[in-house]
Amino acid sequence: MGGVAVVTLATWLLVRSLQRPSEPLPPGPPKRPIIGNILLMDPEKGWETFHQWSKELNCPLVSLTGLGKTIIITNSLDSAKTILERSLASDRPQLMTMNELVGWKNSLIFSPFNDVWKRQRRLFHQVIGTRSSLTKYDAMKEIVAAKFVANLMEEPGKLEEHCHTFAGDLILRVTYGYVSKGYDPMIKMAEEITDAASEFGAPGKWLVDIFPLLRYVPDWFPGTGWKQAVKEQHDNVQKLMNTPYEWVKKEIDEGRAGPSFASELLSERNISEEELFAIKSAGSLFAGGAHTTVWAAYAFMKMICLHPEIQDRAQTEIDSVVGSDRLPLVNDMDSCPYTWACCLEALRWNVLLPLAVPHLAMDDSSYEGYLIPKGTIIISNLWAIARDESVYPDPYTIKPERYLGANPQRSPQDWVFGFGRRACPGRLMALESMFTVCATTLATMRISQKVRDGIPVPIDTTQTAGLASRPTPFEYEIKPRSEQAKSLVYDAVLAQ
């Protein structure tokens, strides 16, 4: 019997050794029994904490474990691209709050990696995913950019509001063919939902994401006020999906619909249920796209206000290429490399989704000897990538010229919109619209630091907390560069 016991024990130990991964997890902060270190996640500005841990541990990957979950954060461009561009990392974690309770589960951004998602992705790519597919929207981008500048001329103290109006107007036109009237209720609705999504989607924000059974706790139980907030957000998400869809459907039925993503799909044929949902879920892209476009433009304005020498050089280039008899066009982008570099530097300087949208590992893989187990939530720290000195020497200095010359540094467009098959399908639209509005502003306006009692008002260069971050407000002065510039802008707006 003793021999049998020894053989049995030896066999069990052998099996355990074979099952145990040969590679370790990436390093992480100190752990506690049972809960590990997963509760150390900072739900406010986790990107700064993760970056600091990565430096202290001298490793581009940081792992958090506990309560049956593993989270790995990539803090370098190489680690993010190597891991996240594999098809094995194309899934999304299904967070209880965002996906199940609020209702983002089947939207293109948060959907699991499945056949429905693949078909939706293909639809979006066909309509807005290539330069040729976007050409028909060029006039829209140019008109909306002119309206933005006209609004600045009329009400120069409302830069932030005008950025919202510009972005919302553009995305609504492209997605649904809806022409907004100023700071439109539909734009406001999308902004409020995006702000709430930023709060709900912040990693580590909600205990129900770690303990899913908390969803079944009765509403009357103490400490369940979060359930009412979730219900309100769920209702708002449904409204975001249905309101613009019902509007464009009515426009098509009455023969008034202009070109848009939704009308293109609805008008051509009898659409499938999946295509119908893709049109409705375009609302999520509208909300996300509006956030990116609003704050990218705002960050650009803040950057050139801080650095008048950058504004001078960009305006000289615009004047040389465009002249004084017309406004910039989308097609001027390739002829204005410095202005384009300014757009890229604004995206790097103020990363708008600092922790991106998490991926989920669908199978075991590894990176530089570290294990990434199946089921791991993978967070890409884009804020840290923007400060990766191996990619961007002197990362805390604003230098648009870093993307120019014989040896340009890596363009932020390679990572700021995500990685692999989960990269944002509307990134070309976002980049072209950002260039157009920034170039139009440079051609016609001059922005400078606010001066009070003879002293320039300091500009705060930090950004807000949350999943979807933004530049902090700043004080400024802005005025037209000339009467000719004013005439060009007003003529363009009247001609639409």
UniProtKB/TrEMBL annotation:
Heme binds at C424. Pathway: Secondary metabolite biosynthesis. SUPFAM superfamilies: Cytochrome P450 (SSF48264). Residues 1-24 form the signal peptide. Keywords: Heme, Iron, Metal-binding, Monooxygenase, Oxidoreductase, Signal. Its cofactor is heme. Pfam families: p450. PROSITE patterns: CYTOCHROME_P450 (PS00086). GO terms for molecular function: heme binding; iron ion binding; monooxygenase activity; oxidoreductase activity, acting on paired donors, with incorporation or reduction of molecular oxygen. InterPro entries: Cyt_P450 (IPR001128), Cyt_P450_CS (IPR017972), Cyt_P450_E_grp-I (IPR002401), Cyt_P450_sf (IPR036396), Cytochrome_P450_fung (IPR050364). PANTHER family: P450, PUTATIVE (EUROFUNG)-RELATED (PTHR46300:SF7), P450, PUTATIVE (EUROFUNG)-RELATED-RELATED (PTHR46300). This is Cytochrome P450. It comes from Schizophyllum commune (strain H4-8 / FGSC 9210).
